[in-house]
Amino acid sequence: MSNDASAYPEGAHGAPTKTGLFGQRLTLMEELRAETFAAHARLQCAPYFQALAACRLPLESYVGQLRALAAIHGVLEQALASCVDARVASVWTIDMCKLPLLQQDLRYFEPRTVADLREAVEAALRAADHLRLRSLEQPLSLLGWLYVLEGSTLGAVVLRPLIARAFLLTGEEGMAYVHSYGPAVHARWAQYQQRMNALRLSAEEREGVARAAGECFDHLEEVFLALHPFAPESRAFLITSINPEAGRHPLPADAREVQASIRAGDICWRRFPYYEHRYGERGRRFARSDAAWQATLYQYEPEQIIQQVRWLGRVLAARGMPTLLLQVQLEILVDELAAAIPERKADYEKLLPAAADLRAMRCKHLSDDRLEALADEFDRAVGPEWSARYPRTGALLGAAVADELEGNEGAVESLRSWLTDAVRFPAAWIVAVAATLAQARRQA
Length: 444
Description:
There is one protein chain. The longest helix has 27 residues, at 141-167. This protein has 444 residues and is mainly alpha-helical. It has helices at residues 28-35, 37-44, 47-53, 59-82, 86-91, 99-109, 118-137, 141-167, 185-197, 203-227, 255-271, 274-294, 302-317, 323-340, 345-348, 352-363, 368-382, 384-389, 393-405, 411-419, 427-443; strands at residues 116-117, 235-236. The protein has a two-stranded antiparallel ribbon with strand order 1-2. It is built from 21 helices and two strands. The relative contact order is 0.08. The chain is globular and about 70 Å long.
């Protein structure tokens, strides 16, 4: 971590002052450096960095750092991308995203099955929760968090050779995050400083951004203190090992069930390319982590399982994923779990009534045959090229109509709005979407 603290003007006690050498007002970036000087210094002294420099840092600590930062960046980058404050938008650019780099590193270590560190995960999730709340209450606070995390790209220049030596890594393998911006890191930092210093903020707003930056440093210090040293009993396999953004929901205790869940998520992902086109790699991670959570439900009573699945179905339908997708994933999951551990097949089949319940609610409005007919008619309307890109889109549209009629508000609009984007789809496709929705409503 580095925000070039040594560049501050220093006061009588060695700490940065709020004014320059000749009494002039500091720029926003200078003020942020001054206000976070002490917090930055504390973080740099964390045992994590001392162990890394001495080549004694455990792999769990490094991978735990990647997972913790992925959880935080996931929240930060989503909030930045959707922020309506024009001042935030003037600073943030999409090419500043670090989450894809963190995910690239985590995929590299995935075959090693590295355990989570429970306390570090909890610290990261607390940071993410705090950031999520602050972004809603005070959007400008995002600039404080961004200042800290963007500044870490400077420190990464120093950390790269230490990480490579400690874990015998070469190139960007396992180190894409600390290689962000490559040789352009100082130029990118200068551009970022210019955008920040160009902002017109009141004194109170500046203080709020600085306060948020201090909060970010405090949370990061909590994370890094939990990453090293750690007690052996802190090791655990948590849902964050599959998806750092998944929060706190349970993960199967049996590694075979975890792997079966991952396979089920991937199979459903491939069966419906809509997933990938719309949600990208992030959607795939959630497909996996959702399946892993579903794999824990068989321990509950049948009615509880159905209630839990219905709840997830409502959440997903409102986000553009009709319950048809959840039904299919549950059926695939049962098959994968039973294949992995045949002697527990009867336990896993306890999930099937929940899948049947989703189907029954849909079929009250549109039968399976109706959905297939809608899918076929849609494919004919858009032609072979587009139907191959997005198979079964007509069925998804019909399922969304059924979900909405079942009381899932927004189920149609969350799907329709994306599928009628004129930048993404041709006119014939958009006409077919409207026609299919109209036909589904007539037949329901």
